[in-house]
Amino acid sequence: MSLLTVTNLKKSYTSVAVNNLSFELEKGECLGLVGESGCGKSTLARCLLRIETIDSGSIYFKDAAIERHNERQMYPYRKDIQIVFQNPSAALNPKLKIKDSLIDPYEQYKKVLKLSHFSHTSKDAYVKQLLEAVELPMDLANRYPHELSGGQKQRVTIARAISIEPELIVLDEPTASLDVISQGAVLTLLTNLRKTLNLSYLFISHDLAAVKQMSQRMMVMQNGEIVDQFNSDQLFDVERHPYTKELISIF
């Protein structure tokens, strides 16, 4: 069952950033998107989240066409589509304690939330559940972002993303700013959360190894276009696109 269907999506600035993209993302899967920096991956993410308007094409989420929705119309869908950015320091408000950052999405969407994995019997209990889900101790709740390591901050942003139990999380280079040890731990955490919480991911990265580890299916993007799509176990097949083979050669 397709959770997200994108058809002929185009977005231009001074030049074409995303050109005629079409793909589907199934419920419960991790779909990987790999490509060099500047190829249009993050632009695509912003378009899917309706942070950017698109020039043409369609975006269907749960069978609803959302590509022309205004902000009021998007409100019911915002809780179901979350994002984890590359830089957790920029994603967290430096003036808020961690517990307040984790509570904020709930406060925004509580009128339309029906939580099944996390209970909101009290704010402290809710925050504790979220921190435990991303393997962080409760004593971090009263700290500020600058008091946490990069890996801890990224786990907090993941906890915030799952806090309102979305159906789809866009992971935009979520490990790019982390050291090698933290990268591996975060990828393992994300895999476990997807299975436990029945999440779907669009995993965006320039790191082919990370994309292969995380994803059931992969797409390769070059110059704003999807040039290759395949199951992850077909990465090394001879019929792969020349650009995919080029990425493999530096893998």
From TrEMBL:
SUPFAM superfamilies: P-loop containing nucleoside triphosphate hydrolases. Pfam families: ABC_tran. GO terms for molecular function: ATP binding; ATP hydrolysis activity. InterPro entries: AAA+_ATPase, ABC_transp_ATP-bind, ABC_transporter-like_ATP-bd, ABC_transporter-like_CS, P-loop_NTPase. Residues 1-248 form the ABC transporter domain. It comes from the Bacteria. Keywords: ATP-binding, Nucleotide-binding, Transport. GO terms for biological process: transmembrane transport. This is Peptide/nickel transport system ATP-binding protein. It comes from Litchfieldia salsa.
